[in-house]
Amino acid sequence: MNADAPRAELNTDFSSPDAEPTSWARVEELLSAPRTFWISTVRPDGRPHVTPLIAVWRDGVLHFATGPAERKALNLARNAEVVLTTGDAAWDEGCDVVVEGTAVRITDEDRLRALAGAWEATYGSFWKFDVRDGAFSGDGGAAWVFGVAPRTVFAFAKGDPSGQTRWRLR
What we know:
Residues 1-21 are annotated as: Disordered. This is Pyridoxamine 5'-phosphate oxidase. Keywords: Oxidoreductase. One of its GO terms (molecular function) is oxidoreductase activity, acting on the CH-CH group of donors. Residues 26-124 form the Pyridoxamine 5'-phosphate oxidase N-terminal domain. 19% of the residues lie in helices and 44% in strands. It has one domain (9-168): Pnp Oxidase, Chain A (Roll), CATH 2.30.110.10. Strands 1, 2, 3, 4, 5, 6, 7, 8, 9, 10 and 11 form an eleven-stranded antiparallel β-sheet that branches. With 170 residues, the chain is an alpha+beta fold. The relative contact order is 0.23. The mean pLDDT is 93. A hairpin with a 4-residue loop joins β10 (141-158) and β11.
């Protein structure tokens, strides 16, 4: 096990008897791959809001972008707590991951340029962004970039054996 990897806790109440914790390397592999993520935020009236997006895992932080006037950006202005999920579409194989944390807006332009390069490297030239005024800039206008340093991460290994692993990072 990597000395820098967080400690995994297998929840035996929701795991097969022969299950082992999912490795942190597997979680990072899933978070790094080009895939759809789902973000959950909280509306001003307390109702949940869930929407798909793409994200980039870099330096132990999960990053996503949204327009300043989009519902998720408006929600984050009032409550920055989020849940991001991703995984495999099959119900009986693969692994799903849940990341809980606080979304923090990133405005440092050097960091944004590095993230713009990561977006394009991960998702292709369709997702090419310039950086201007502390945000991504593209054909769709400005996009604010947020980073979520995970507080808690869950992995749900599906199939046989199945297992639920949790990491507390902060």
